[in-house]
Design a protein that fits this description.
alpha+beta, SH3 type barrels, 27% helix, rod-shaped
Length: 273
């Protein structure tokens, strides 16, 4: 009888232990296995820009140069779905040179400027498949991001690094560059001294020449095309009684060099009585 009671107590104890184990497993949440992972949220514009970049780099790797427009990537490098997504985000592709290009978007998020050899700041109007399909010009001042972190570059109020310091229109108004040569003694003399030293003129069909003496009495032969004077003067014409010299002098009203003709007259020698 005593053994029967012990067996009954043991069965009850086992039942209680089994119920406790079952209840603990039911109420306790399973612990996660391994490290927790978090899936980042993807930006549709960033995905499209990345796909376009990969296509451009693949085209460059095959051909050695970047494409001039996105139409060259259609088919082998970009599918119609990606091109359509690029049009929806107003993506513009600009060919800079054979090794660099620029991708811009008119929205809040924009692609970075990328090139194989150099980074090209904004300054020229972008062209691309999106602008050609819409039939309208791209925005005048695009917002550019150098990375995909969201930092933007706004060129408003900043100087254009591609704009030359000397404009072509202003340079064309300047007088022609005068070729500098080693100065001769006549080029070191002012025209007043040359006129004072003008002693004789030989004039005829075989050519005209003049004789000029300096302050020391040394003589020089002058003919058409000889450089004289201290202002890049050149002898244009020799007549029987005068020499015409063309010089470049600065006009204060126009603030630039202007050609000026100076006449050097031969003094008449009075006959001795």
């Amino acid at each position: 009888m005593k053994d029967k009671k012990i067996i009954i107590l043991a069965v009850i104890l086992l039942a209680l232990v089994g119920y406790y184990v079952w209840y603990s497993q039911k109420t306790t949440a399973p612990k996660p296995q391994g490290k927790a992972t978090f899936a980042p949220r993807k930006n549709p514009k960033t995905e499209v820009i990345r796909d376009v970049r990969k296509a451009v780099e693949a085209y460059k790797k095959d051909t050695g140069n970047v494409p001039q427009n996105l139409d060259q990537l259609k088919g082998k490098y970009l599918d119609d779905k990606t091109l359509k997504a690029a049009d929806q985000i107003n993506l513009s592709y600009k060919y800079v040179d054979a090794k660099s290009y620029q991708i811009t978007t008119s929205g809040a998020s924009s692609a970075g400027v990328k090139g194989a050899d150099k980074k090209t700041p904004p300054g020229r109007q972008p062209t691309g498949a999106a602008a050609a399909a819409a039939g309208a010009s791209p925005p005048a001042i695009p917002q550019l991001a150098t990375t995909e972190t969201g930092w933007k570059y706004d060129p408003t109020g900043k100087p254009d690094p591609f704009k030359p310091f000397i404009l072509a229109s202003a340079a064309s108004e300047e007088t022609p560059t005068v070729v500098r040569r080693q100065l001769t003694p006549l080029q070191k003399m002012p025209l007043s001294e040359i006129q004072a030293g003008l002693k004789a003129i030989i004039w005829g069909q075989l050519g005209s020449k003049a004789l000029v003496e300096d302050a020391t009495g040394k003589g020089y032969v002058v003919q058409e095309g000889t450089y004289v004077g201290q202002h890049d003067g050149i002898v244009k014409k020799i007549y029987q009684d005068r020499i015409v010299v063309e010089e470049y002098r600065r006009d204060p009203t126009k603030d630039r060099l202007e050609p000026t003709e100076v006449v050097l007259k031969l003094k008449k020698v009075e006959p001795e009585e």
